Amino acid sequence: MATTTKPLGILKPxxxxxxxxxxxEELLVGRRPTCDVRLDYENVxxxxxxxxxxxxxxxxxxxxxxNGTTVNGQKIDHEHSVMPDDExxxxxxxxxxxxxxxxSTQVLASNQVLEEEIAEAPVRRHRSLMELAGLESDRDxxxxxxxxxxxxxxxxxRPVEEAEFDDAVPSRFEPDEPKIExxxxxxxxxxxxxxxxxxxxxxxx
Length: 205
Fold this sequence. Notes:
The chain is α+β, with helices and mostly antiparallel strands. The chain has four helices and eleven strands; from the N terminus they run E-E-E-E-E-E-E-E-E-E-E-H-H-H-H. The longest helix is centred in the last third of the chain and has 21 residues, at 184-204.
């Protein structure tokens, strides 16, 4: 007597129709005849989505279909778990998966939160790893964001002659002595001195 393998679940159409047994842990769903689960609707893509059994729980992932895949009315763009009471939408055609999950609802809820955190990580890149881990408060995060948004403060340096130093200023940093412009009287004085020196030299000869 041939033994029949019990399916891992039953995909039941909510609008009426024949139930589809899920016999493998990974099933390709789409309109193509080669799909494991063929849905012969015009708005279903050739390779629409994939169903996978992961640690005793069914998951569904959209394969870039034209009309999308939903779980409980929410469009999914990453792998999402499906419980027996969840409504799965494939291009507007709705189903439920009848099966017995081999995992507690509490563990599943934790896994679902983790999946959502991973999916939303690219959108929330400004959040630090400490904040995601719960080690950073909202006040710390706000202070850090404020520091990142403020432009760097400009450092104003005082001139050497105005700066106050505890030690003596090295000679190479001392300001140059102020230059005094020569007047006409100074030039006249210099000429007179030159003439006086010339006369003294003549007398010596």
